[in-house]
Amino acid sequence: MKHNILKFPCMIAVFYFGMNVSAQETPRDSSSREQKIEEVVVIGYGTAKKRDLTGSIVKVSGAEINDKPASNPVNSLQGKVAGLSIVNSGQPGSQADVRIRGTVTINQTQPVYIVDGVFANNIDFLNPADIESMEILKDPSSLAIFGNRGANGAIIVTTKRGRSGRTSVTLTSSLGVKSLDNRPDLADGDLFRTLFNEDLAYQGLQPYDFSLFNGNTNWIDEIAQKGGIINQHNVTISNGSEKNRVSFSFGYHDEDGSIKYEKYQRLTFKFNDDLKISDRLRAGIGLNGSYSKLPQLRSFGSALNATPVVTPRNMTAGEFYGYYNSLPQQIGGPQIGNPLAAIEATQYTQLNRDIQFNPNAYLEFDFLRNFTFRSNYFVNYRSNYGRGYSPIFDIYIPETNTIAPYSGQLLTSVNQFERRNLVFQQSQLLTYKNEFGKHDVTALLGFETTDDNLTGMNGSVRSSLSGPLGQIPNDPRFWYLGTDYGDTNTRSVNSEQSRLRTASYLGRVLYNYDSKYLLNASLRYDGSSALAAGKKFDWFWSVGAGWEVSREEFLRENPVINYLKLKGSYGDLGNQYVPYNYFAYPPYVPGATGVFGDSVYPALSFAWRPGLGIGWEHVKSYEFGFESQLFDRKLSFDATYYNKETYDLLNLVEGNPNFFLNSGAIQAKGFEFTAGWKDNVTDDFTWYANANLTTTKTKVLETRGEGYIGYYGPAIYQVGTPIGAFYGYDVEGIFQSYAEILGSPASTIGDVAPGDFKYRDVNGDGKITPDDRTVIGDPTPDFTYGFTLGADYKGFFVDADFYGVYGNEVFRTWGNGSSFAPFNYRAERADRWTGPGTSNWEPRSYTASGYNRENSSYMIEDGSFFRIRNVQLGYNFNKNLIAGLSLEALKVYVNVQNLKTWDNVNGFTPEAGGSATSFGINGAGYPNPRIATFGINATF
């Protein structure tokens, strides 16, 4: 496919060389560029000056995300950091697909999160207003200290704590309204009737009589929530003295989804108390947590597939007759229910909750002048539970003028589940700091353990037509497995339990000589209970070096180059993540049965073959680049080349039974560019421009053996191809006549007629066979970019974020005629082939043959897009104006998120996350809505 989308925005992005807003201060940040170099950043198990580091760590101020309308703080990082890819879902409470420097492992793509020292797999329990800063760690020099957690990168979150001084109260409040930007283009009623009858004609069948079905319904409009509301309200109280600093915050988030009756609500709280017991002894406790009412998640899938010829409700004289209409029984009715009926009749019948509770404590003391010992203790408790109800209701069948149960369901049922995860983590850290002569040394030794316990239960029960109590009522009081209305013969319960323990020894040295020559080295010895005996422990390490060239005499007084640092690092990181925790001890599951005489004996078999030799994945990674500031520090420009190669991949091989092995290798490499310009034109006027650009290329270096090919839906896993590459036939056009078919390679995969696809004979053997399938797309973009423009004048400010990707493909799985069921068509099918010369891309309307339904480049769409990600305008009141209101600060603003997206994908969004081997798939998706917000921040 040619990528012809939005060349002008791409040229803008290249012009800015991909500058990084998150690494730069906003115009409302009074610190200078020199202070940015000297600023302290959070690294693994400590802090350090950015100037002393040899790796790639990007610090994002909490101010960048505090007032954005997002339930998960990581969503607001999209487009702000080079090397950080974020695919957001607009569904409330959802987790973004986050990747740092590409995809380099099969079982896990997400980075590790560290929240105030606690490891986490997600940060959806955090209130964005509570965040002080977020550090994104990308290179081996920064990540090796995390050993078994660092393979996919790390995001360190530091929350706000109390400060010395007067008591302060901060209130933030915002109200937003959602609307849809893009939506799929579907056939209307008239086009559907035309295409469907053409399909029947090609099959030699009579036209369908649509006299009972003359509707023209857009099912997306029917089930979409119009004007969904998002509310965010937070209060923070802090007080501090030289001896004691306390902070407390409380937040409330309320959000409507883009589909009717989706509702997400969350309460968050945070408490910190830092106590200075003496000049050498400090202690502290903290607590953060959340309580969430999770939405009853819906999908637009049925709205895309349902035929548009049916009116949703059975109406008489303009009034709802009491029943919803069924779809035509011969046209999708048995496969697809009325989408509106499914939404409205089951509204609020699934009650899911999520609770997180994360206490922590530390004790820290100094001794022997240069030593500090810190003892940390963390608990991460999460409980996800819920119960739901499946009602029965009737639907009108127009063909027979009768009433029938929806989807043939005759019995009500109840489901119930609970999943608890309790993690205990402790770390003991000894730090040595000293400066002597021109030498500066910071050394760290540590010991850490984690104990991760998971328990879960789920079950269901149905009612009985012969039961004395009848159906289970549509009342939450009875939605339990033990309900008296349930038929005990249908009650089923399943449970799960697992435990994962790790133990680690770690060390790090940060050294610089004369503030010019830098050396960072880390070493970690990790052990995991998940791996096989004899393979549980392994070493991980890194070394990085830097040279601050601008401190040399030949550059010290240079009028152009104010700061220049060359840097590079190499390391070996680890990964242990797999679906199971006990490779060597698989559980038993029901197997085949044997019959002896009149008795049946059940058999048991292993769930998987014992993984007696399973060990660690290793990620060998290196980078080199430079950081610079030019022209009186107005311009900053950084560039980095990175290369990551993962070996001994932990592979699940499907068989009888399944088994695991270490095999395969994946590579991800590319460049990162960041730059920024800030200019104080006058004392009252400041403007800035920042941006970033990242290139990424992935490649499968090894698989499970020579010639092995793994298939993951439309994606392939094969040596020499990008990870997740799409695989299928290459469409060269449409056969216009039988003469053209006779003059082309013969097909062995199905009968061909004029109006069908012409597939390319890839191997040149004169016929079309499965061997002609080839790579038809790469879901990883050639480059991603983001840039920000902003200005500040006498308290008035404006900033705008832009984001885009270029050079990737997405695979469309809907609207292709890829099902025997008569689903609705994409609007593009109006340009179908109807005779010689009418089309050379859209095939004829004919679904009886599977030939046109093969995975092919017809399903490939250009995934490049450009988005106005965020625009904010506001005013920071002058302190003199608000002094009489007892206010320290007051800010009002309007914010528009996802203002506009330009793309070439027929769907709600051009973005699609997924697994390591199956992502970038367009199932039409869930909207990333436009959100217009008004907000106010006040500090007393």
TrEMBL record:
It is found in: Cell outer membrane. The keyword Transferase does not apply. Residues 49-154 form the TonB-dependent receptor plug domain. Its main location: membrane. Pfam families: Plug (PF07715). InterPro entries: Beta-barrel_TonB_sf, Plug_dom, Plug_dom_sf, TonB-dep_OMP_SusC/RagA, TonB-dep_OMP_SusC/RagA_CS, TonB-dep_rcpt-like. Keywords: Cell outer membrane, Membrane, Receptor, Transmembrane, Transmembrane beta strand, Transport. The keyword Manganese does not apply. It is a multi-pass membrane protein. Belongs to the TonB-dependent receptor family. This is TonB-dependent receptor. It comes from Kaistella pullorum.
